Amino acid sequence: MTLAMARLGVLLLAGLLLAPQARAGEHAVSQKQKEFQPSELSVEVGDEVVFLNDDEISHNVFSRSEGAKFNLKIQRPGEHKRQRFQEPGEVVIRCAIHPKMKMTVHVKPKGEESAATTSGPCTVSDDGNGDDHCEVDASEPMSVDGKRAEDAPESVPAAPEAP
Q: Could you report how far apart the first and last alpha carbons of the chain are, in Å?
């Protein structure tokens, strides 16, 4: 083995050891008309959720759930903020400004099967101005709990009226 080949081997090994790790999953949640869209989301530990304010009013996303307490503070229209989920469990997320805004993030251990979300396929993209947007592929059928809309029953029982 020549000295040049040995150096090349050392450089390749160093490159592999110093290469950045693959980025964890990224998911988008839109805030529009005082609602989180989707209202339920499944992610893996280490995944990041981008909260996009697609509304015409400000929001304040926070959680008091054990293992995932955070407060993203005021988020003006058009802004986005990110939150990484490091602990498995159920995370209830609310808006401090609009108490009826609520969503749930199910954080699963890495590699565990995730249930389908109500959002359909959603891709986070940058519009070139530094703003992220949630783009839903309308060609894909949306699903709830892993069931496609066309498989849903014709009718469902009415929910009882609230007292």
A: 83
Do 81 and 72 meet the contact criterion of CB atoms below 8 Å apart? yes
pLDDT in tens, 52-72: 999 999 999 999 999 999 999
Which long-range CB contacts under 8 A does 65-70 form with residues at least 24 apart? Answer: 65/89, 65/90, 65/91, 65/92, 65/93, 67/91, 68/105, 68/107
Q: Which of 98, 19, 86 is nearest to 47 (CA)?
A: 86
- Strands 40-44 vs 102-108: parallel, antiparallel or unpaired: parallel
Nearest in space to 84 (alpha carbons), one of 98, 68, 71:
68
Tokens (6 digits) for 120:
């359909």
Give the whole-angstrom CA distance, residue 162 versus residue 145.
25
Structure-token pair, residue 19: 């290469």
Residue 140 amino acid letter: E
What's the whole-model pTM score?
Answer: 0.57
